[in-house]
């Protein structure tokens, strides 16, 4: 594929040992397959801002478990093209999951206007003669 693209969503898998808070400990065997998959398909992790964890069980503070199981990956073309963009993990409201916002609006610098040919000049006899003389 020759275009930039993203993979975004709930993978229900963790990438690192620190991807969970409270609950059962994360073991290396749980993250190895997902890490290998990400490496094999050649995508990169889009930088993240906002909430540290993307899921919680929504229980009381004593029994609350947090984990990071939602991810945003970009192919190499995406990573080169959108170097400054980040995936923003929002504060969850009604769901157990954080919404993820990736704003792809790129602010471009204003360019100077290009040359405009005024067609009224083309109708002037003096213009036609000047062009004819120049081309000879």
From TrEMBL:
InterPro entries (alphabetical): Endo/exonu/phosph_ase_sf
Full protein name: Craniofacial development protein 2-like
Organism of provenance: Capsicum annuum (Capsicum pepper)
């Amino acid at each position: 594929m020759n275009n930039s693209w993203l993979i975004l969503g709930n993978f229900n898998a963790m990438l690192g040992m620190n991807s969970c808070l409270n609950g059962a400990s994360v073991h290396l065997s749980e993250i190895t397959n997902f890490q290998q998959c990400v490496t094999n398909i050649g995508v990169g992790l889009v930088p993240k801002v906002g909430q540290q964890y993307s899921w919680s069980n929504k229980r009381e503070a004593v029994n609350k478990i947090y984990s990071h199981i939602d991810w945003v990956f970009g192919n190499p073309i995406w990573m080169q093209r959108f170097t400054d963009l980040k995936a923003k993990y929002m504060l969850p409201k009604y769901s157990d999951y954080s919404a993820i916002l990736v704003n792809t609006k790129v602010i471009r610098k204003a360019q100077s206007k290009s040359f405009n040919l005024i067609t009224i000049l083309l109708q002037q006899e003096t213009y036609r003669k000047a062009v004819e003389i120049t081309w000879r």
